[in-house]
Fold this protein.
Amino acid sequence: GQQVMQIPQYQHVQEGEDFTTYCNSSTTLSNIQWYKQRPGGHPVFLIQLVKSGEVKKQKRLTFQFGEAKKNSSLHITATQTTDVGTYFCAGRTNSGGSNYKLTFGKGTLLTVNP
Amino acid sequence: GAVVSQHPSRVICKSGTSVKIECRSLDFQATTMFWYRQFPKQSLMLMATSNEGSKATYEQGVEKDKFLINHASLTLSTLTVTSAHPEDSSFYICSAHAGGKFISGANVLTFGAGSRLTVL
């Protein structure tokens, strides 16, 4: 079945440093979504990428979708303590099963040292 | 925006008892809801897809007789953990698609706050 690999599993940075997490799918995706889960909280939707090579920005966050629609990345510039949490990518394919079934990566836990 | 309400947020029960968790879409109708399980510091594992008015679709390895799902209305899905045992202790999260009314992209998920189950 479809697999979504996400690295790194953990990342600890000093406040002000940049951070990047990467996702790679075993199959071509129709779209990819990113979620953030604060410690003790639930996942919250950040963004969805649909087009090949798409790049979207949200303030200090930059999201990219690969040309082949099999990989994606989330980059945070100049991290802040409020960025702490686990970032999940979730990929969707058009093949089989429920139309809305997403496969989540294992997540990257980001901790920021003030 | 779209809100999914999940109750209870925390529950502690004795081994052998059953626990029901409710998931409600507050300002939209959800014909499909999803139940996930999350172990500490791990990813979200899809357990089942709850379909209003029909049987739930369970993922491979998830016991349907153990985790009973009922989706009796367009705004409510319930997950019942039957004869709970300590290994069932986990964080259970439901989610639903609110659709284009709230978030661009019909297949974006809105998550409930989750229910932390502890079985003694």
